[in-house]
Design a protein that fits this description.
The structure is a single chain. The protein has 65 residues and is mainly β. The chain has one domain. 0% of the residues lie in helices and 62% in strands. It is built from no helices and five strands. A five-stranded antiparallel beta sheet has the order 3-2-1-4-5, with no helix packed on it. β1 and β2 form a beta hairpin. The protein is globular and about 30 Å long. This is Translation initiation factor 1.
Length: 65
């Protein structure tokens, strides 16, 4: 089952980006390599992360303000 989570915050850590997300009232973190997110500056907009059943990122949706 796929899940969509709202991005609450993000931070850089070395060559990784840590995404702080919220889904169904629960907060969690997902990390990914910086090179996988080409436009990190857009993460300040309304962002939703699609996850597969293993919590792997399968898509990032950015909605412009």
């Amino acid at each position: 089952m796929n899940t969509t989570a709202r991005l609450v915050n993000w931070k850089e850590h070395g060559d990784m980006i840590i995404l702080e997300c919220e889904s169904n009232g629960k907060r969690f973190e997902i990390s990914t390599y910086k090179q996988r997110i080409y436009n990190a500056h857009l993460l300040s907009d309304n962002v939703y992360v699609r996850l597969d059943s293993s919590d792997n990122i399968i898509g990032i949706y950015i909605y412009k303000k």
